[in-house]
Amino acid sequence: MPASSRPAVAAVLSAALAAAALTGCSGEQQPTVVDTSGRIEFSRPLVIPPLDRGTVAEDGVREFDLIADEGSREFRPGVSTPTWGFDGDYLGPTLAANVGERVRIRVDNRLAVPTTVHWHGMHLPARMDGGPHQLIEPGGQWSPTWVIDQEPTTLWYHPHPHGETEEQVEMGLAGLFLLESPGTAALGLPDRYGIDDVPVIVQDKRFTDDGGFTLQTRGFVGSLGDELLVNGTLAPYLDVTTEAVRLRLLNGSSARTYDFGFDDGRSFDLIGTDGGLLESPYRTDHVQLSPGERAEIVVRVSPGERPVLRSNPPDLGMQDVLAAVNGGADRFDVLQLRAANTLEPSPPLPPVLADIPRLDPMYAVEERTFEMNGLQINGRSMEMDHVNEMVELGALEVWVVENRMAFPHSFHVHDVQFQVLDVDGRPPPPELAGWKDTINARPDARYRLIMRFEDYADPETPYMYHCHLLAHEDAGMMGQFTVVEDAEAATSELQLPDHDGSH
Ligand code: C2O
Ligand code: CU
Ligand code: CU
Cα dihedral angle (97, 98, 103, 108), rounded to 10 degrees? Predict the structure, then answer.
């Protein structure tokens, strides 16, 4: 997106914030409610991002290549949109690797601007994390390597250059990263990629008349679109040939929260969240995802029917008028499932999916509080050379996240998967009871998270924690932590190389 068509995000957000504080509501802004339900023709087959298992080198390392480059795509026939993508015009391949394997990923930056690739949800050394400190200059290359050491799940990757994340993700730089294991394969879950195991990357967009993407800030959360792309497809349908289909939902949007369900209200099973499978399938008829969150669901269909995955107005925890300005009244048709007249049988789900050892706050060695207020965390904005928190290697910690605003935020932690101990003192609902790396932080709510920082210490390279509403993150609603052998000896000042983070 040319910088000129992009409002200065921080300025617009602060203005919205100030107006709301003064009037107690959204000020002049009239909410424009978007409702595409029942109005979509579902004329295009859902694009399935290519599955990329890389190649296993002689030393046993699974190697991948990703090329970030500019391109263009006709989301509507005859109208070309300038885009960015990995190994293609828009989005990137679905990478897949096995738990226990070492991977190496060669990233080439063919963009005209610096970028990074962050492995969202991955447990890995900070230097491999692809955060704001691992900039890849135009024409440059970066080859991180690490061992996959966590539960099988659905992760994703996206750029993370400080101040530029929203623009780069919106242009199309994002993809899924599937972690697999033989143990999970034995569960008999639908797992044939693109057939009964289907990625569903949901992004809201607004197009200009000449076909470009535009970011238009509305309300406090950031830029909200009025149309959806699913895996880069407008108005998609999916041909379903099996009785059960597993959808790997990723909210790949910058600002919008979705509440996914089906147009006929049917139930489905939630089987996994950000960092792994749930202990057992949870039967529900809706699942809400804020930006960056994932959910795996299994839905059953009957021959010939065409249920529609729909996003109903999400519960943003705000009064109606304010919620409406932030997308809280919007309704979207997302994806039509077209069941064949004869369906291949799918086995029932197993009653037990995973064993989740519960982290016990009794053994926590540290408790930290993260107060989200305005566009800051603990009264500070992101500073590239300042480490906000120093964590001792191996420590089990409780992080208390408090949203002090009447507006939604979210909270994401790099390097770890955490467990939610409680929300406003109450045990977490089933959709927050598994492994998570990102949570929706509701207005005026308090979350206690517990996590362990294992394996990788590096006093010189920080990981990030931040709000995953990308405009907020870019505006500085982010902090840095290091994992260190000796917290006493660690310093909060980082020596930055000259080219690092000074834009
Ligand atoms: Cu998905 Cu720090 O990001
Ligand atoms: Cu991340
Ligand atoms: Cu936020």
Answer: 10
